[in-house]
User: Fold this.
Amino acid sequence: MDKKSLVNLLERTAEVLELIGENPFKVKNYQSAARALEEDPRELQELESLQFIGIPRLGKPVAQALMDALKTGEFAPLLEASKDVPPGVLEMFVVRGIGAKKIRSLWDAGLTSLEELKSAALAGKVAALKGFGQKSEDTILENVEFALSSATRHHISSGVGAAEILLEYLKHLHPRVAGSVGRGLETVSDVNIVVTGSSDEVKDALNEVSPLERESYPAWSGTLNRMRFEVAFSSAENRPVTDALFSGTAWSDFLLEQARFKGFELSFEGLYKVGEHVELSSEAELYTALELPNVPLEYRESEHLAKGLDFLSSLPRADELITAQDIRGMVHVHSQYSDGTATVRQMVTGALERGHAYLGMGDHSVSAFYAGGLSIERLRVQMLEIDALRAEGFPILKGSEVDILADGSLDYPDDVLLELDYVVASVHSLFNLSKEAQTERLVRAVSHPLVTILGHATGRLLLRRPSYDVDLDAVMAAAAVHNTAIEINANPWRLDVDWRTALEWRDRVRFAINTDAHVVSGLDDLKYGVMAARKAGLTPSQVINTLSLEEFKVFARG
Ligand SMILES: [Zn+2]
Ligand SMILES: [Zn+2]
Assistant:
């Protein structure tokens, strides 16, 4: 569990208490505990070692419950508050735009699940309720549909976290992460791992992780941190076939069809031709036998397959794709100057400790007041601090994440932007503009000669908020003309732009893989951005923060 999940638990507790009509002071207590924890600059590890004692506005009982939550994964005050609320009513909290009060009205009207809420909205019954109305019903319907489609999915970071734990238990059985986590998909519904070993060996290895269930194919499934997992086991002989078939549904369906077409029989039992077993010593040999390209796991998606085999063969090979080691500059990070929790010195030290060659600051600009955006004066104070740190030998670029204003102009005047080494331009407001206006706004921003990178182009938050309405192709085309790089924001909640867009535009624009870190540990999100970039078939030369510091400056200002 990370700090953000603990903050969510506190917030959710306040909401449920409000829903059941609890004492407003009790509600407030959890709300302020949530804010206090969120705003505390210390990392979770440090707070845990202090047992959450000494955080202002966070009392002892809450501190104790948080400690227990870290151990058990369950937050007792939330369980207590929720015990008489139907689970389907609790699910309504994931629907954007309705809070405790509205959920109470919906519950009082007899609606106790997302499905019931959807049907009621479709039938126009929500608009008729007191305090709702037509516009409110339309928004609810849209958001319920989004929530229903997200309900069983998790962020890739949760998948990777669970996979890392399982790999530890299975390390003696040559494990490989397969399925959607192995393919680096942005959201996942389960974790798949393939091992070499017997059914009993897997069962013994995972004994203490979870109760297990035997699947109809050679695999055991269970649950870890609320995520379903599946471990497929295979003999050494059948391992190539098992690895291939556990890549993902689209890929295995395709392989089975291709095998039939070429006169083979393919199953977990192995590859056969007219009853004769075909010996395979590697997965590569399977693809040779089926006359298929041996593509990296990241490409084994229906979206890649839909473009045809010639396209798949034309993409870079696994050893040509970008890796985390290729990234030399960590650009677009935040510090205490705006809404980050670390100092500039701590951020650059963190980047250097992770093997990067330089750091590029990207604190918010003045209009982002809710995120502590910097006035021109404050920005200049930061630049002076960077000068001092540079004199000590720290490789830091002066940059800013500048708000794109309503009309597409930028939040600092050009002469200020010129004092910076590079500029990330991002949208943080006015998500509801018409498609035409939003597109015009972004096209104007990426066409600005001083903009180096377009930050999180669609504004989506995975499993929470879809993209704003925008003609992304028009924006990408303008970025291509003006040599503005497109960010692949590596935060697992964003992964924005989507890899599908990057795949489409890979030969026409350059990209920047940015963590947008607000804490030092946020720099570790790089891996998720790299996964997305690999799905898009990107090589190091297509990503600008693989450049050296000097080359990067030339790209930005050359
Ligand atoms: Zn941003
Ligand atoms: Zn940012």
